[in-house]
Write a sequence for this structure.
């Protein structure tokens, strides 16, 4: 009787081990869980950076690009805009824009470390609605 109980316990422990190993083996498959795109820092757009010109004031730059992520503590005339984008399972991509001002707050130069992706083509889930087929009738002239 004691041997039967021991064998039954051994079978249940063995079954639990097999079940645990089979469940954990499935969790090693990549890309099962959905991961969202994570933008961090200043969202830099190629169109906005193209508008940046030497001779702009600090207020114009801040209106165009937003508040910088970092203003150097010992040199208030250098602003850093950092944009970090991680899309789903790809490695993160970082873009850094450094804007230098003179003592009057006028842009002297700026440097973008690598080109930003040009968003001229719409994303799959961002459909652009055009009015090519739309009629020119007014809402109150529905009978025409």
């Amino acid at each position: 009787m004691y041997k039967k109980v021991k064998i039954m316990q051994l079978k249940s422990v063995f079954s639990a081990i097999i079940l645990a190993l089979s469940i954990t083996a499935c969790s090693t498959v990549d890309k099962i869980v959905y991961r969202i795109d994570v933008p961090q820092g200043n969202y830099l757009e190629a169109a906005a950076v193209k508008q940046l010109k030497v001779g702009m004031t600090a207020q114009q730059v801040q209106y165009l690009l937003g508040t910088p992520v970092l203003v150097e503590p010992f040199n208030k005339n250098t602003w850093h805009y950092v944009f970090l984008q991680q899309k789903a399972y790809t490695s993160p991509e970082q873009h850094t824009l450094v804007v230098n001002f003179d003592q009057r707050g006028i842009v002297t130069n700026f440097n973008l470390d690598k080109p930003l992706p040009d968003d001229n083509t719409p994303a799959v889930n961002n459909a652009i609605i055009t009015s090519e087929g739309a009629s020119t009738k007014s809402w109150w002239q529905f009978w025409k």
